Amino acid sequence: MEITAQLVKQLRDRTGAGMMECKSALVESNGDIGNAEVILRKRGIASAHKKSARVTKQGLIGSYIHSGGQLGVLVEINCESDFVARTADFQELVHDIAMHIAAADPKYIRKEDVPGEALDKERDIQRGRAAFEGKPANVIDRIVEGRLAKFYEEVCLLEQPFVKEASLTVGQLIKTKISKLGENIGVSRFIRYKVGDIAAIESGAEGPPEASVAV
Q1: Where are the beta strands (DSSP E) in 30-97?
Q2: Alpha carbon separation from 145 to 29, 117, 126, 204 (Å, rounded)
Q3: pTM
Q4: How many CA atoms lie within 13 A of 92 on its CB side?
Q5: Are 144 and 126 in contact (CB under 8 A)?
């Protein structure tokens, strides 16, 4: 069954989940919107959006040092209460995200954090690549936007496939914890150190401390 934009919108209106999450669930359910909603609920996504506006002032700073001591990460994950911050589920999430950052080397937390000049540069690169490949001029813009989605997946933490479960993005992983723990959860900032790399930059340091997963 064709997964139309109208069908995706209908599921999004019913669940509040993101467009890509809705499309993925509809593909998995062969276009059955009822089953797609169940899939989203099992993933903990359908209810997480209701909590995404709540302020997160508690949380933990987690760390991960890779074997051999050549690579390390510090990350701040926020929640709403000290009670949740002390739970095993939250602590596991903090550790897992720190480990993911060590492995996947994201440059930004979310798509909105990518500087405009970096996006413009990537668009120019992909437009030139598409032209070099001989793509028709009337579809180049569409091709470029599709490749930008891949670019976001490579450089933005929340868009990256989670290293321990590639069927989930890090953003989706956080949403499952939001649903389970009943509080808003967000990544505030992180820094990744590698021996010999003097260009380590703290990501998200200028953002608000309650920066959360946007649906």
Answers
A1: 58-65, 71-79
A2: 26, 16, 9, 24
A3: 0.68
A4: 8
A5: yes
State the residue for tokens 């120019």: 124
Burial group, residue 136, by CB count within 10 angstroms (0-12, 13-18, 19+): exposed
Give me the architecture of the 5-46 domain, per CATH: Orthogonal Bundle (1.10)
Domain map (residue ranges) of the chain: 5-46, 54-112+156-194, 115-152
Question: What does the pLDDT average to over 106-110?
Answer: 95
Concatenated DSSP letters for 165-186?
EEEEEHHHHHHHHHHHHSS--E
Block residue for tokens 């954090």? 113
Per-residue pLDDT tens over the stretch 147-186: 888 899 999 999 999 999 888 899 989 988 888 888 889 9
